[in-house]
């Protein structure tokens, strides 16, 4: 399998989850649903601490925790709820990494354009805007640190905060977890020095109970940044 294939496993699994999440489900049910689906689609394991699907709901969506410490809570999905799913499939040591925040209103998953809850809709739109800004801002000379400062400035200017427990915005895709380099202060390496990297701002507004995450993998093709 190629990186695009493994990332497609994650994308298809999120689509599957959107069709199957219902009020009354436990987060552990959603985690098992996603992990089983990824294995069915061709993943042979999960690269991030052997957890295939990190699932958070409600006020847990602001939680930022290392996979090493992650425990799936016994929370149950409500009729109106916000759910973040972060997937890490692997096949033959090739990683996928993909996350989405999903909204349920009146018991059904709704597209972001149709979300009635203004705060939730604004959060999802902000995530889209940050990914759009990445594609417009980054070039083969851009360093991880430059991207870190630029995106965090935009997050702040728009009244949001970065929730990441390490303050970073993503990392390189490698073979071993310990070899990752991050979109963080002090990393002078160029984005184009790595084959692939994730962009995954985890944001909220101050004093809110809710957080938002959207994660894609990006790479340079003919000197232009594109989504995997």
Automatic annotation (TrEMBL):
Tell me which residues make up the Peptidase M24 domain. Answer: 3-219
- Superkingdom of the source species: Bacteria
Which keywords fit this entry according to its UniProt record? Answer: Aminopeptidase, Hydrolase, Protease
**GO-annotated molecular function:** aminopeptidase activity
Task: Determine if ATP-binding is one of this entry's keywords.
Answer: no
> Is Protease among the key words of this record?
yes
| SUPFAM superfamilies for this protein | Creatinase/aminopeptidase (SSF55920)
The record ties this protein, via PANTHER family, to: AMINOPEPTIDASE (PTHR46112), XAA-PRO AMINOPEPTIDASE P-RELATED (PTHR46112:SF2)
Please give the name of this protein.
Answer: Aminopeptidase P family protein
